[in-house]
Structures are given as structure tokens and as C-alpha cells.
Amino acid sequence: VNLGIYLHSERSYDEFLQILDKLEKYIPKKIVEHDGLMRHVHHQVLLGGNQMTAARACGSKMIRMNSTTDSKLLTGLLPVSEDWHTKSHFARDNMEVIIQHCVNY
User: Fold this and answer.
1) Environment class of 9 (CB within 10 Å of its CB; exposed 0-12, middle 13-18, buried 19+)
2) pLDDT tens digits, residue range 81-100?
3) Is the dihedral of CA 49, 41, 74, 10 positive or negative?
4) What is the mean pLDDT of the chain?
5) Fewer Cβ atoms within 10 A, N terminus or C terminus of the chain?
């Protein structure tokens, strides 16, 4: 059973592209019309993570910019930075200030 865990590093573009290629396989690409004809549609799915993940995903898409297929272009993956990570880093970086403010209040 695939749990979505890939043993590749986000720090290397080569390995990150392997992750994106595996994720791209799960994105729906075709819809059946009412008359039975197939219409090619490449859906987009959000690829969330911290700022490094979003930046690495954008860079990986730039590497594949000259590819000829939607799958190789990674058009189905839309990189976004998750707000949770931003809030977590903000709280971590400002914890001393918050505690000091509460103690002095």
C-alpha cells in the first residue's frame, strides 16, 4: 500500500523531480464525454509544503520548461506554500518576545 512516502531528498533537483514524476501519475488526465468521446483535460492539484518545497517545485518545473508533454511539464502540480508552516516559523522565531511580553505584563 502506497502511503505517499518516497525515499528521495528535496534538496536535490534530480531526486525532487523523481518525487514529482511519481505524484504526477495520480493526477486525472482524461474525462469521458456524454457521447463516449474522450476529451483530454489535465487537472491541477495543489502541491503544498514549506517555502523550500514550493521553491524547489517551481525550480523543477523551470527545468522541465522545454518538455513536450503535460506530464513531463508537471502542469498538474501547482506548488503552494502552506500557511501552517509560516505561522509555525513565526511563533518559533518570536517565542522569546511573546514570553517576555507576558512576563512583563
Assistant:
1) exposed
2) 887 767 777 888 888 887 88
3) positive
4) 85
5) N
Q: Is 98 helix (H, G, I), strand (E, B) or coil?
A: helix
Which pTM was predicted? 0.69
Domain layout of the chain by residue ranges: 13-104
Query: Which residue intervals of the chain are DSSP H helices?
Result: 13-24, 51-63, 70-73, 83-104
Residue range 5-59, pLDDT digits in tens: 888 888 899 999 999 999 998 888 877 776 777 777 778 899 988 888 899 999 9
Task: Locate 71 and state its grid cell.
Answer: 506530464
Residue 1 contacts residue 14 (beta carbons within 8 Å): no
Q: In this structure, which long-range contacts are made by residues 54-59, counting pairs with CB atoms below 8 Å and at least 24 apart in sequence?
A: 54/79, 54/80, 54/81, 56/10, 56/11, 56/13, 56/16, 57/16, 57/20, 59/13
- What is the spatial distance between Cα 53 and Cα 16, in angstroms, rounded to a whole number? 9
